[in-house]
Amino acid sequence: MKLKKLALVLTGALVSLALVGCGGGDQAKQDAKVLRVGAAVDFAPFEFQDEGQKEYQGFDMDLIRAVAKEMGSEAEIQNIGFDGLIPALQAKNIDVIISGMTINDERKQKVNFSDPYYQSGLTMIVRSDEEAIKSFKDLKGHKVAVQIGTTSANMVKEMEGVTVTELNTPADCFMELKARGVDAVVNDRPVNDYYINQTQAVGVKSLADKLSAEDYGIAMAKDNADLQKKVNEALKKLHENGEYDKIYQKWFGASK
């Protein structure tokens, strides 16, 4: 009887170990399907958190969730200060960065980038009835509103014959335009596009001409070429199946 009981105990123990082993394997498999994402969640409309919302919002946030889904993974997003994003990637604390990050030579020395997913730069908004201004070269002799301390302020100040009005916020610039205090507003493209789309602004229009251009990319560790390939494949599929266009239109409207 004792031997039989011992055999039953040993059998039960082996079954338990097998189940634990299976559970561990399932957990490892589950963990492998998580794409750890780093973002500085303070850059609307790309990444931000509305009061009362649990999930991070924005163009980047929707895009990276779609990329992860195409890869058979789920995006797990961590809010990290912008200066800490690349160090976190290098320390293997995250797998990718998506945070309105410009692709440039300095960063390419530290990380691999995906194919560009958004082209930023400086664009211009004018009133709908404005016919004289069609591009940046037409701004000579006109009044332009810019946000104080920005790249747009610095670049417009260098233009010959342009009267510059510096205001505290983009909203102040748009109000000044509508009040006919200025003839145009120059700001970063996403700020202008987001304003037009989210406020359903009437009486104004965005011009296609860009004063400068810079590409945003998803960053990965230098030693992870396989992940770079998978991310690029996912981005390509999102363009092909129309999902990218849906996300873009949600945040910036129909024009690209």
UniProtKB/TrEMBL annotation:
GO CC, any one term: membrane
Principal subcellular localisation of the protein: other
Signal listed as a keyword: yes
Keywords per UniProt: Signal
Residue ranges constituting the Solute-binding protein family 3/N-terminal domain according to the UniProt record: 34-255
Subcellular location: Cell envelope
GO MF term set: ligand-gated monoatomic ion channel activity
InterPro entries, alphabetized: Iontro_rcpt_C, SBP_3_CS, Solute-binding_3/MltF_N
Ionotropic glutamate receptor C-terminal domain ranges (all copies): 34-254
UniProt KW Signal keyword: yes
Coiled coil (UniProt feature): none
Signal peptide (from-to): 1-18
Record family assignment: Belongs to the bacterial solute-binding protein 3 family.
Name of the protein in question: Solute-binding protein family 3/N-terminal domain-containing protein
